[in-house]
Structures are given as structure tokens and as C-alpha cells.
Here is the input.
Amino acid sequence: MSYRISHASLIAFAFVSMTGCVRYVARPVSPNAIATAQAEHRFDPSSLVARYALLAPLQHFDPERWDQLALFVAMLEYNPDIASARAGVLRAVAEERVARAPVGPTLTFTTEYAGAAPEASPWLFGAALDVPLDIGGRRAARLDAAGLKTAMARYDYLEAIWTARQALRAALVNRFISVRQSNVGLQLVALRERHFAAVARRVTAGETTRADLERIRADLSDARRRATDASTRVIAETRNIAHLTGIPVSDMSDAKIIWDEFDMPMSVVPDPISRRAALVARADILRIVSAYEQSEAELRGEVPRQYPAISVGPGFTWERGLIKLPFSLGLVLPPLDLNRRAIAAAEAKRAEAGRLLEAAVANATAAIDAAETEAHAAREALAAIRRNELPAAVRLAAQADREIRMGAIDRTDWAASQNGSLVARLAELDALARVHAADTMVELALRRPLAGPELNIIGTLGALQ
Here is the structure.
């Protein structure tokens, strides 16, 4: 009777275990289907309202005005690289849950038949469990390693956000600069066409040489090329912004993409306290710190392997009408070197991780110093052009306007003066582009925005996972 009850219990346990199992569901992927879905994607600005409110609850989302904050929110929603990094966080969290699950026991069934047994039944039936004791340093090290992998995945997610954000900022800078260069370039083309026509008339009248005309022709060709290149860059950067944010190109007209302080960038050089705080808060630095802590956890896990791993084995035996309850104690012995080689390897890995952290901090400090130096030099260059070169060229152009009205100069001299003011304007745009590129370097080195509407972010990016 005891055997029948135990056998029925085992069958019931197996049935319950099988009914609780997760079934495999195939989900094949097709690059063609993915490409088709992306091509048929319809952008809905209302889908950004929740994320916008989560990050900047004090700001109002206006789909008709794409500033840096609105574009940043769209990037968080639709950028494929950020979505991939977010999936990596979810994977790491799931793996951390797996690490916290208890170690499963081993169940062994035995049977034996004894020929010509003197007992009433010749059969022996038994079952035994082998339960590893998942305690102490081994379990702690495994849980620590899993938690650190999750932290590193989160830092990778933040780094992916910053990489995409800096690419977006660079694309915005290039687009704004290219729009201005295109406008000035078209003015310069029109002016040099008039200049060319005036010189051509003087050549016909025998007042100047054809060499002067060819020089003006070369200048005109150069102006046309630069204007065309600028217009091409506007299209390319607009498409780049569309790729980074998921916003259709048709929704990114000059009226919708705004950057109020673009022509007058504020100083972005932080104070020493903010600089040091930003340095230790960089996601890439924190990831390397987590890598060091992971090597520490691995070393902590190797140390207990010097000692035997213990497992207990309760069992049940029905032996020819007699019930027995055996109990065993198992020991998994350490390697013959008492795990010293593995411990030494883990110590070497920890030392390497420490050196990598020192190098990362030094490189980050150098990057911040170089970015701040370039930001200062770029602003000095822009200020010099705006203080000297550009005003002088504008004054000469205004003087030429007055003189041509008075008949003191001809159209050729007037065009040369106007050409100087437009060339100075192009030089100013080049210097402005250098300032914004330097500001991008500073923000990338510090891993935080230092100006613009993104400073209105209050919520945390971690909530977006």
C-alpha cells in the first residue's frame, strides 16, 4: 500500500510539472517584412505626448515646433539603435531573474528485481533527490555578477542615447549652417553673375583684359559650386535627422525646426565642481566601474571553489515490502591545485579592469580639457570675425552703395565691395559652425546638455525602459 501511494504521488507531481511548462512559440523574422514595415510606417506626433510629459512635465509639446527637446523625445521613441539597447536592458533583467532562481535538484529513480527472493515480492523500487546547497559565496557571487550585467546593460543604453543624441545635434548644426550657407551662397552667385556681366561689357569695350573676365568666371563657378553643395547638405542632413528621430522629411521644414539661440550660442564651459561631477557620472565610466566590480565578483566566486561543494540527497526506497528512507551527503571536490590557478586568473582580470578604469578616467579628463580648449578658441575666432572682419566688410559694402548712387564708382567696383561682405558672412558661418562643433565635443565629453531646451528635462531616462 505504501508503494501505491508513493507511485501515485510521483505521477501527480510529474503531471502538474508538465502542465506548468512554457511552450515554445516560433517567431521567424524576415528582413523583407521588416523593410516593408519600416517603409509603411506612419508617424504619429501624438505618440510622443506621454514620453514628453514623462521627461519634461512642465513643458508643452507642440508638434508644429521641433526644438531640440521635441526631437530628443522623438529620437527616444523611434531611433532603432536606442530600441536595440533598450531590448538589451530587458534581456539583462530577465537573465538576472534566472540567476536568482534556486538551483534545481536531481531526481533519480531506481528499480531492482531479485530472482528467487525469499521475500513475498522480488521487486525493489526507490527514488532519491540530489539537492545542491546554493548558499554562501557561490550564490552571492552569481547574484552579484548578474546584477552587474544588468547595470552594464543600462549604461550601454544610456551610452546609445548619448551617441544618437550627439549625432542628432551634429546633424542639426550642419543643417542650420548649410541653410545659411545656401542662402548667402545664392546671394553671392547673383552678385557674381552681375559682376561677370559688368566685366564682360568692359572687355567688349576694351577697358579691361579677358584675363580679368576669366578670373571672375572662376569665382562665379566656385560660388555656384558652394551654393549647390550647401543645398545638397541641407537635404542630406534633413534625411539624417529623419533617420535619427523617425520624423518624416515632409514634417521638417525650416519653419518647424527651430533653434532660437543658434546664432548666439551661450558659453558651455562648466565650473570645476560640475566638471568633476560630470566626469564620474559618465555612462561609459560607470560601465567600466561595473566591469571592475564584476571582476571582483568573479574573484569572490572563485575563492569558495577551494572547498568542496555540498549537496544533500534524501530518498525513498520500497524494498520487497519494507519502506526505507535513506539520506546521503555529497561533496564535489575542488581541483587538485585547490583552484589556485583560477583564483590567480581572476586576480589578474581584476587588476586589468582597474588599469582600464584608470585609463578611461584619464582619457575622459583629456577629452574634457581638449573640448573646453577648443570651445574657448572657437568663440574667440567667432568674436574676432564679428568684431573686426564682418563689420569692416559691411561698412565697405554700405559705402559702395552710397558711392554708386553718387556715380563715384562703377558697377564692377560696387560688386567687388558687396562680394567682400558676403565672403565675410561665409567666414562668420564657418566660425559659427566651429563653435557649435566644439560645444558638441564639450557635451559629449561631459555626457550632459549644457544649453538649450533639453535642460528642462526633469524625469529620468531609466523610466523609459
